[in-house]
């Protein structure tokens, strides 16, 4: 069992010795549908305190449109990421825009479930499911 120390770049293995790991990376791909009114952000990598500003930047940049955030390629998802999604959802609601998240069988899905984030925004199993509901 490995417990992660998220404030640095080391992990503490079960035997108590620290292992160093590469800094977390986050990649966000932005796709706009043919109408220009729906943005799909596909997020890949780890969402933690070190990568949160990247996620927040992309959420803010996509805010004028209806938005789907696809988290299926996320390896680690912190509660700070949930907070960022809840804030983005609130901004979308205030602007009368749709906001949805895609997360199925991935670490983000478990965190979203444990934090009951679905009370703040819709969570779908696939991007096509989300698109059909937002159209």
From TrEMBL:
Originating organism: Amycolatopsis echigonensis
InterPro entries with a match to the protein in the record: STAS_dom, STAS_dom_sf
Pfam family membership, one: STAS
Residues annotated as transmembrane: none
Residue ranges of domain STAS in the record: 28-134
Gene Ontology MF terms: anti-sigma factor antagonist activity
Protein name, UniProt field: Anti-anti-sigma factor
């Amino acid at each position: 069992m490995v417990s992660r120390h998220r404030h640095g770049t080391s992990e503490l293995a079960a035997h108590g010795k620290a292992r160093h790991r590469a800094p977390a990376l986050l990649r966000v791909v932005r796709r706009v549908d043919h109408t220009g009114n729906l943005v799909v952000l596909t997020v890949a990598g780890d969402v933690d305190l070190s990568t949160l500003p990247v996620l927040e930047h992309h959420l803010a940049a996509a805010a004028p449109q209806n938005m789907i955030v696809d988290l299926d390629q996320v390896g680690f998802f912190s509660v700070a990421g949930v907070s960022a999604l809840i804030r983005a959802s609130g901004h979308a609601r205030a602007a009368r825009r749709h906001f949805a998240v895609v997360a199925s069988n991935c670490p983000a899905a478990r965190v979203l479930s444990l934090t009951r984030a679905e009370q703040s925004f819709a969570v779908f199993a696939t991007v096509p499911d989300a698109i059909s509901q937002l159209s």
